[in-house]
Amino acid sequence: MRKKRVLLLSEGFGSGHTQAAYALAVGLKQLSPSIQTRVIELGKFLNPVLGPWIVSAYRKTVTKQPKLVGMMYRTNYNKSLNRFTQLALHRIFYTQTSQVISQLKPDLIVCTHPGPNAVVARLKRLGLDVPLYTLITDYDAHGTWTNPEVNKYLVSTPIVKRKLMERGIAAGRIEVTGIPVHPNFWHTFDKEDVQRQFNLKPMPTVMVMGGGWGLMEEDELVDHMTTWRDKVQLIFCVGSNEKAREQLLANPMYQHPNIRVLGFTREVNKLMDASDLLVTKPGGMTCTEGMSKGIPMLFYKPIPGQEEENCEYFVRSGFGELLQSKETIDKWFSLIGEPYASGQFRRTLLTKRNQQYNPTKCPSAVLQLMQ
């Protein structure tokens, strides 16, 4: 009997969409080793020159004009992509999508970005007979995610399910699965072992993420964190942004034995287990990874739009606080310096996580729906 095949289509507008696709793919393989999965950033795959250029332009807009991004998000909030826009996307950007699907012969397509989602929906309208699942990778439901041809929506919370139902989508087409995280985040690693692996000191530790797009450069709040370097160990993760890493390393404020500046790493899951506090941009994926680890979070300058919605959800749920001032930093850095209070708070978050989130639920739900 032929092995089941799942095609996961994403785009590189922020790392979260593709991370969610890979997390689901690996989770499916973990639970059902016989299944075959393929993750494709469709625009980059079909247009290796134009695709990365568009992503780069988007990145510059996010970093230089975040209010414009927020205005566009709000203006189109209740609008799905109309048929003319879907046709334009297909003709200009996704011309060969049907050929890719014909060659790979998937039993199921999961889209983690609205672009491929709209194009596959159009192909289904024209006769494609493959189930389409839409995995919404934020804690909000923007209209561009929605299409009548979607067979099932996989969403983060009951709140997102309600928002989709308010758009007229039947409850039976929506399943609350949570956003998938890589199986590396399903388990807790021993804190002392991780400290030894990364040459970290056994002291209160803060992990700072979000520098990959240069969003934390020359910021007084980030600089204020370094004034705690004698009492708190700081791990700055800047991803593949080598320029940001070099700038931090050249800054005298960051040249201290208790400050580590890391580039790209595949072991964020372990570093979260070694840390007592996470400072991050409130992207849907990073926040979900933090929740899966039960680590308290400070949310840094949400980009207007979906990051604001993500931030609001996690603050309201008690997993963190919006980073608004130096006083916020001082309060939390003082808290993690008190072992009993810090440990008690983290145990509370783990209890909340167990009530609200199961990292295996999304891949398990997809497998069940495929039967």
UniProtKB/TrEMBL annotation:
Keywords: Glycosyltransferase, Transferase. Belongs to the glycosyltransferase 28 family. The lineage of its organism: Bacteria, Bacillati, Bacillota, Bacilli, Bacillales. Its main location: membrane. It comes from the Bacteria. GO terms for molecular function: hexosyltransferase activity. InterPro entries: Diacylglyc_glucosyltr_N, Glyco_trans_28_C, Glycosyltransf_28_UgtP. This is UDP-N-acetylglucosamine:LPS N-acetylglucosamine transferase. It comes from Paenibacillus beijingensis. One of its GO terms (cellular component) is membrane. It is found in: Membrane. Residues 205-329 form the Glycosyl transferase family 28 C-terminal domain. SUPFAM superfamilies: UDP-Glycosyltransferase/glycogen phosphorylase. GO terms for biological process: glycolipid biosynthetic process. Residues 17-181 form the Diacylglycerol glucosyltransferase N-terminal domain.
